[in-house]
Amino acid sequence: MRGFATTVVFLTFLNLVSAHVALWDKGMFGLNYPYQADDPQNNNYNNDAPVKPLRELDGLTTDQWFAHGHKGYPPKAGNFMVLPAGGSYNGKSCFFIPSVLVILQFECQPLTTYWSHNRRSSLQPSSDDFA
């Protein structure tokens, strides 16, 4: 009976759950939004602009959609986001709750290890799809 009650409560509040996540890196566009990344006077790394959801219904142009509209807020010169194949990526992940930054480590794998020909389906592209 207790499991049933827990399930009912879980399903009741399920429609209230909403999540959006972004990887924060020194090489990202909009890192210091609404200031430029090389602005020494203003450090606004605690902004939620890169995490806000983009919807198809908003009718955004490519310029508005790319980098969440932060094309005018590039990273500092020389800062790049590096995702090494077979290595690991150390960065931060920010959820749609402002001021929540969690340090995570994401394992990077070569493209061909994500999809196998043995498990091929319409949702799992192979390396042939990118040739």
UniProtKB/TrEMBL annotation:
Required co-factors: Cu(2+)
MF (Gene Ontology): metal ion binding; monooxygenase activity
Q: Which UniProt keywords apply?
A: Copper, Disulfide bond, Glycoprotein, Metal-binding, Monooxygenase, Oxidoreductase, Secreted, Signal
Signal peptide residues on this chain, from the entry's feature table = 1-19
Q: Main localization of the protein?
A: secreted
Query: Per the database entry, which stretches of residues form a coiled coil?
Result: none
A single GO CC term, please? extracellular region
The domain of life for this entry's organism is: Eukaryota
Alphabetical list of Pfam families matching this protein: LPMO_AA14
Task: From the Swiss-Prot or TrEMBL record, state where the protein is found.
Answer: Secreted
- Describe the family membership recorded for this protein in Swiss-Prot or TrEMBL: Belongs to the polysaccharide monooxygenase AA14 family.
User: What is the protein name given in its UniProt record?
Assistant: Uncharacterized protein
